[in-house]
Amino acid sequence: MTAGPFEEFVAAESTPSLRVAYLLTGDGRAAGDLVQEALIAVHRRWDQFVDRAEATAAVRRELVAAHLGRRWSRVGAALADSRLLAGTTGLPGFASPHPVPVPSDETTAALAHVLPRQRAALALRYGADLPEAAVADALDAPVADVRALVADGLGRLGELLEVDGAAAAVQVRDLAGRAPAGPGDVHGWVLDGERSQRRHRAGLLALAVFFVLVALLVLFTGG
Alpha carbon of 192 to those of 63, 157, 185, 198: distances in Å? Predict the structure, then answer.
C-alpha cells in the first residue's frame, strides 16, 4: 500500500469532497453525510489501493453512487419516524437525525431540478474542476456521455437561472466555493461514522429477529 496513512488522506480529501457533495445535495448536513459514507467505504478497502490517486478516484465513485442511490441508505431514519416504531427508544441505529437544511439560494434551488446524473456531472466537472476522463470514471460512463450530460445539465441549469451555459458553469463553481466546512477531526468523524453504521446494522438485525419471532409465535399459537 503506497497511498499513505488514511488519516492524512482524509484530511486532504475532505474539503474537495464536501464541495462536490454540497453540489450534489444542496444541503450542508446531507453533504457531510454523503462524504462520511464515501470515506467509510474507502477506509474499508484502504489496503487495496496502490496509490492516493486511486483512492481519491474511489471516493468520487462512492459519492456519485451514494448520491444516485441514497434512498436505501435512509431506511433506518425512515423507520425511526414511522408509526411502526412510534414510542420506541434505545434501538441501536434507528435514531432520527432530523438534519437542519442549509438556506437555499437560486443556484441550489435550480440544481434540484437538474436530472441526477447531469447534476453529478456538473458537480464533478465544475465543482471539482475535473477533466472529462476523471468525470467519466466517477460516473462509470464513456467520455462522450459525460460531454452530453454536462451540456444538457448546463442547458437545463441555464434555462432555470435564465443565463447561458457559461454563466451557469460559473455559478456552479461559485456555489462549490461556498460549501460549509467539514469537521475539525475528519479522521475521528469517519471512525464515528463507522461505529454508527455498525449500530445501524445491529438495529436492522434486531428488528429482523423481532419480526421472525413474532411470525413464529403467531404460527405456533394459531394466530
Answer: 19, 36, 11, 10
Q: Which three cell numbers stand for residue 10?
A: 482524509
Q: Rg (Cα) of the chain, in Å, rounded?
A: 20
Q: What percent of the chain has pLDDT over 90?
A: 52
Say which DSSP state 88 is in.
Answer: -
Q: What span, in angstroms and rounded, lies between the C-alpha atoms of 122 and 17?
A: 14
Query: Does a structural domain hold residue 1?
Result: no
Total domains in the fold of the chain: 1
pLDDT band at 215 (very low <50, low <70, confident <90, very high): confident
Q: Are 22 and 104 in contact (CB under 8 A)?
A: no
By residue range, what is the domain housing residue 75? 6-221
Whole-number Å distance between alpha carbons of 145 and 162: 25
The CA angle 214-220-221, to the nearest 5 degrees, is 85
pLDDT in the model for residue 90: 46
CB count, 10 Å around CB of 213?
A: 10
Query: Which of 39, 34, 38, 47 shows the shortest CA–CA distance to 11?
Result: 39
Beta carbons of 162 and 172 less than 8 angstroms apart: no
User: Over the stretch 25-42, which tens digit does the pLDDT of each residue have?
Assistant: 999 889 999 999 999 999
Q: What is the pTM of this model?
A: 0.75
